[in-house]
Amino acid sequence: MAKKTVEATPEPVVVAGKGRATPSRREREAANRRPIVVTDRKAARRQSRTREAEARERARVGLANGEERYLPARDRGAQRRFARDWVDSQWTIGEFLIPVFVVFFVATLVVPQATWLFFPLYGYLALTIVDGLVRAAVVRRRLAAKLGDRTKVERGLNLYVVMRAAQFRNLRVPKPQVKRGTRVTA
User: Residues 34, 40, 41, 43: what is their CA dihedral angle, to the nearest 10 degrees?
Assistant: First the structure.
């Protein structure tokens, strides 16, 4: 049998480099050298405050618009976004809780012996809680159907939905991103 000889093909030569000379240590240290204390402190403070104010304004607008990176930890995630959108797309009984409390307070000042007014007030409060819990159950059921498993639904979502449903729509943070009547799907 004859032996086969395998010829190696030459690899292309790659010239590596950055196209400029490596800076010396002295040059790098000189480039990094900055004064520890600035000479014009008032201007530096003004500039710092301006930068911080711009950053705060970006964060405020981002939070109001519901941008994920500006949201606090309690509002982050796709499940929380769905819960927010679902609650915001509907009228809730809890939205009127504060006005009902104000009317109750005024009524107790005007009407003598108004202890009987506590029963409707507590009834409305209980109705608000039940409404929030029903909404939370619906949100959990829809998310479980989407995820395929009820255990994958986040903890604390019930309280999140109940608290969101009990707030004025205008005062909710982050602001509602959907209009009432919008159909929200998981």
Answer: -110
**What CA–CA distance (Å, rounded) separates 87 from 113?**
38
Please state, in angstroms and rounded to a whole number, the distance separating the CA atoms of residues 119 and 34. Answer: 71
Amino acid identity, residue 145?
A: A
Confidence of residue 80 (pLDDT cuts 50, 70, 90): very high
Q: Alpha-carbon distance 46 to 49, whole Å?
A: 5
Amino acid in the structure at residue 146? K
What b-and-e string marks burial along 4-29, b requiring 16 or more CB atoms within 10 Å of the CB? Answer: eeeeeeeeeeeeeeeeeeeeeeeeee
Instruction: Write the CB contacts of 23 (distance below 8 Å, at least 6 apart in sequence).
Output: 31
Q: Are 166 and 132 in contact (CB under 8 A)?
A: yes
Q: What angle do CA 36, 40, 44 make, to 5 degrees?
A: 80
Report yes or no: 101 and 122 within 8 Å, Cβ to Cβ: no
| Tokens representing residue 135 in the block | 């909404």
Q: How far apart are CA 171 and CA 182, in angstroms?
A: 20
Convert the pLDDT of each residue in 106-154 to its tens digit.
988 898 887 888 899 999 999 999 999 999 999 999 999 988 877 788 8
